[in-house]
Design a protein that fits this description.
The chain has helices spanning 2-30, 33-40, 44-72, 74-88, 98-130, 135-156, 162-185, 221-254, 260-279, 281-310, 314-328, 331-372, 375-395, 397-400. The chain has 14 helices and no strands. The longest helix has 42 residues, at 331-372. With 402 residues, it is mostly helical.
């Protein structure tokens, strides 16, 4: 129906804006980490502990957000978390100790984790209705937002203090949330017309007029195991994204003596490559299928990160970052979409908890490894986990049915 098609298009645009905003705000924060590190006087290991606040806040809220999405719908939860994310990004530059930094990053992480579960749940519902593998396109918007946020951060790093820069991100975030959120709240989460979700019986928690997909889905043990396996794939690949976001800039600046502007461009290079890979993701999935895409991507990322972490020159490292971005581009979206298709918002929450847990726990782990060995050696762990994701992806080829 033309009217339904137009509504789905508007819904897709609104969701895309939230994915882009999330990447934009997160990247704006990460490119200012060196300045915040200097401001707080943190060492590599104590900075890693402070960054653990993001991890803890995100992981704790992710499962809780899955329940909120089932009860109230993923669209309202996305809007509320967008507001919280926009407000909390202004807090880190107001701190002057690693303990205070860790505390405010706990709040930032909670908002970041919540919005990622919420809009991924909404995206999984839309993918099921459209019956096309468009999940990579949403994550392409996240990467594009990250590229823009990192590029802008590199441009203003020399002229704006972290306080003014991140406060500007708050203003932009609230404006985008107001516009995209209004469009998102106009529509309920869609359900496939040809395959309605069976509703066995009303429950005391049922809400009149609530979309059927928000009802809890009970998964059998095999399904739960598959969801965990897809979560492990997400963890292995998101670990690399978090590592490059938090430590890539510092690696280029500290180990390869790159200019701060060039160092900030390192994450932009990675984000651009990931964006290109995700923009091509739907076509790639339609031609190769999920298994081949995961195996090829994991292998490419492993090779690229070995170059990026061990190369003796800045430009070789940037090339390695780009290859890593292309390789990792579509693996995380595939894992989250499969988990969501199997178990609804609960599946998305589980896979996201594993995935974003890897993204957010990876940087502290690399901080400790950097103190024990060196930062370049620590970054090779990204290559190792990308290779593990490729192996697991091959092992789940029957579950993905392609």
């Amino acid at each position: 129906m033309p009217g339904r098609s137009k509504d789905l298009t508007r819904l897709r645009i609104a969701l895309t804006n939230f994915f882009a905003l999330d990447g934009f705000i997160f990247a704006g924060w990460v490119v200012r980490i060196p300045a915040i590190k200097e401001q707080t006087g943190a060492s590599a290991s104590t900075l890693g502990l402070a960054l653990l606040g993001v991890s803890a806040g995100a992981v704790v809220t992710m499962m809780f957000t899955g329940r909120l999405c089932r009860r109230y719908g993923s669209h309202p939860v996305t809007v509320v978390c967008g507001i919280l994310l926009s407000l909390s990004v202004a807090l880190p530059p107001l701190t002057h100790s690693t303990w205070a930094l860790g505390a405010v990053l706990l709040v930032f992480g909670a908002a970041y984790g919540g919005i990622n579960v919420a809009f991924n749940s909404a995206a999984v519902d839309l993918v099921a209705v459209l019956q096309r593998p468009i999940m990579p396109s949403f994550h392409a918007a996240f990467s594009l937002g990250g590229m823009i946020g990192a590029g802008l951060g590199g441009l203003v790093a020399g002229s704006l203090s972290p306080t003014r820069h991140l406060l500007g991100l708050t203003v932009i975030g609230l404006l985008v949330t107001a516009v995209a959120g209004r469009a998102l709240l106009r529509y309920d989460s869609p359900v496939p017309q040809s395959a309605p979700v069976p509703q066995p019986a009303p429950s005391p928690q049922s809400v009149p007029g609530q979309p059927e997909e928000h009802a809890p889905r009970r998964a059998d043990p095999r399904t739960r195991r598959l969801v965990v396996v897809f979560g492990l794939i997400a963890l292995c690949t998101a670990y690399g994204e978090g590592a490059l976001a938090d430590w890539g800039t510092l690696h280029l600046e500290q180990d390869l003596d790159a200019h701060p502007g060039i160092a900030a461009a390192g994450y932009s290079c990675f984000a651009l490559a990931m964006t290109i890979g995700r923009l091509c993701g739907t076509t790639l999935l339609e031609r190769l299928g999920r298994t081949r895409t995961v195996v090829a991507g994991g292998t490419m990322a492993a090779v690229g990160m070995l170059v990026g972490s061990l190369a003796p020159s800045v430009w070789a490292a940037l090339l390695g970052f780009a290859v890593t971005g292309i390789g990792l581009a579509n693996i995380f979206p595939i894992a989250v979409e499969r988990a969501g298709a199997l178990a609804g918002p609960s599946g998305v929450a589980v896979a996201s908890t594993f995935g974003y847990g890897g993204m957010l726990l990876g940087p502290p782990a690399i901080g400790f490894m950097a103190d024990w060995f060196s930062l370049p050696i620590a970054l090779t762990s990204v290559a190792a986990l990308a290779a593990v994701a490729a192996v697991i992806g091959y092992g789940t080829r029957r579950a993905t049915a392609d």
